[in-house]
Recover the amino acids of this structure.
């Protein structure tokens, strides 16, 4: 990959939803026709994907970025954040990441002085279309990668209902707008979880943190400042690989 292709790729990552060919051309000071050719090269490599008139980082690059940071590094970086969230919310907290086979919940934490029983989530791969952790990550990855992860997860959770594509797409749009993902009784009618997208390697779509607990208790906390608390702590996670 030459320097011009790299410059175009960097601008697509930096501009996010504003990455049109014209905007990229303005930023890298190249003719728009040249930018189109460079984007085509990057598309052929799986590093960039088209989304209407806009461009975004491609599935292959997302997987490469996700593989670039070990789980042990993430545990060290995220554990203080999870501990702070657990004490602030009084609930069990978790962190999940994008891996080759799906969305992996890799770390949990419980409050030291819990005033009530807490629910500790199981570690491992998560149901992609209903779990708050999975949705918080899927909202920020390319569409092709979303479909791959959802398709791979469905056989692993045959007892859970599959969500219709249009409904999930609308939900992911809302998550991108507000930064918060919810799972209210979808996995277990008595439980609820809330997750926020966090940055990893300078980009969203690879990791999230969240809380889980009894449905009624989480719903009551959502009426106060739970979302604000999660965003505040989630913003503290930014591990540059």
């Amino acid at each position: 990959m030459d320097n011009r292709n790299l410059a175009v790729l960097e601008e697509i990552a930096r501009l996010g939803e504003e990455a049109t060919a014209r905007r990229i051309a303005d930023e890298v000071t190249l003719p728009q026709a040249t930018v189109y050719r460079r984007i085509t090269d990057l598309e052929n490599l799986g590093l960039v994907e088209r989304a209407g008139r806009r461009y975004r980082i491609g599935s292959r690059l997302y997987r490469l970025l996700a593989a670039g940071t070990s789980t042990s590094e993430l545990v060290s970086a995220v554990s203080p954040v999870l501990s702070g969230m657990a004490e602030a919310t009084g609930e069990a907290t978790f962190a999940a990441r994008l891996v080759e086979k799906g969305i992996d919940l890799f770390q949990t934490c419980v409050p030291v002085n819990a005033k009530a029983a807490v629910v500790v989530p199981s570690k491992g791969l998560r149901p992609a279309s209903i779990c708050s952790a999975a949705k918080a990550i899927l909202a920020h990855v390319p569409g092709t990668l979303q479909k791959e992860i959802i398709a791979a997860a469905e056989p692993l959770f045959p007892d859970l209902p599959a969500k219709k594509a249009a409904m999930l797409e609308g939900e992911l749009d809302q998550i991108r707008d507000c930064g918060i993902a919810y799972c209210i009784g979808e996995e277990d009618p008595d439980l609820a979880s809330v997750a926020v997208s966090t940055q990893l390697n300078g980009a969203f779509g690879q990791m999230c943190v969240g809380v889980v607990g009894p449905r009624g208790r989480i719903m009551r906390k959502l009426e106060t400042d739970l979302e604000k608390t999660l965003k505040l702590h989630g913003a503290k996670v930014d591990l540059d690989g």
About this structure: The CA atoms of residues 19 and 82 lie 33 Å apart. The chain has two domains: 3-57, 66-239. The mean pLDDT is 88.
